[in-house]
Recover the amino acids of this structure.
């Protein structure tokens, strides 16, 4: 218990860093994920190809390698950002590929006739997708999206290796101060549990309110 009470501010900063990475990374992942899912079902071949390449590359690239590419590669092209923003970019882009596939599976559950009916009323592809297809698709994929964002929260631990303040990164400081490894990691694990259980609770509420009855 001493390791927590003696270093409450350090743990607090780490927990706040993890929460920020999770929130901002999730927002980016959701935006890009829904966008790429739209691309993958678009009638334009170039958009479908772009979405397919995006998902294939990111899903098959180790997240640590993507972090290196973003943190070390982008500055070579003149893109200089705080490490935290680089971490959000890496987490958001990586997770968006999994969000995309979840949303696309939801789109496939919507009866084809609904899209055809919308187009027969003169609605464009974008209007059909935004007002008819995606709202129904989201309802059916709330649980997998929640699970994906929980994975994002846990993946944020990698950011600690790139000078970003987050929970797992507190271990190095506490180890240098001579605290025991076991209790240090116990309280770090508790912090991650707080974050992941919060996400789970939020998506349970969303599922009860808007989810498809199974």
């Amino acid at each position: 218990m001493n390791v927590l009470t003696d270093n409450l501010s350090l743990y607090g900063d780490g927990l706040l860093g993890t929460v920020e990475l999770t929130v901002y990374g999730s927002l980016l992942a959701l935006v890009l994920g829904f966008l790429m899912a739209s691309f993958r079902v678009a009638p334009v071949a170039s958009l479908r190809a772009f979405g397919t390449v995006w998902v294939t590359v990111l899903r098959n690239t180790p997240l640590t390698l993507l972090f290196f590419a973003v943190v070390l590669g982008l500055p070579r092209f003149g893109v200089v950002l705080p490490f935290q923003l680089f971490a959000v970019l890496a987490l958001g882009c990586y997770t968006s590929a999994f969000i995309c596939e979840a949303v696309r599976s939801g789109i496939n559950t919507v009866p084809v006739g609904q899209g055809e009916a919308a187009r027969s009323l003169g609605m464009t592809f974008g209007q059909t997708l935004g007002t008819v297809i995606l709202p129904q698709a989201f309802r059916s994929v709330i649980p997998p999206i929640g699970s994906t964002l929980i994975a994002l929260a846990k993946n944020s631990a990698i950011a600690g290796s790139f000078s970003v303040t987050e929970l797992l990164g507190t271990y190095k400081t506490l180890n240098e101060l001579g605290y025991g490894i076991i209790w240090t990691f116990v309280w770090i694990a508790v912090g991650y549990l707080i974050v992941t259980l919060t996400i789970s609770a939020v998506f349970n509420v969303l599922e009860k309110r808007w989810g498809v009855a199974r």
Remarks:
- The mean pLDDT is 89.
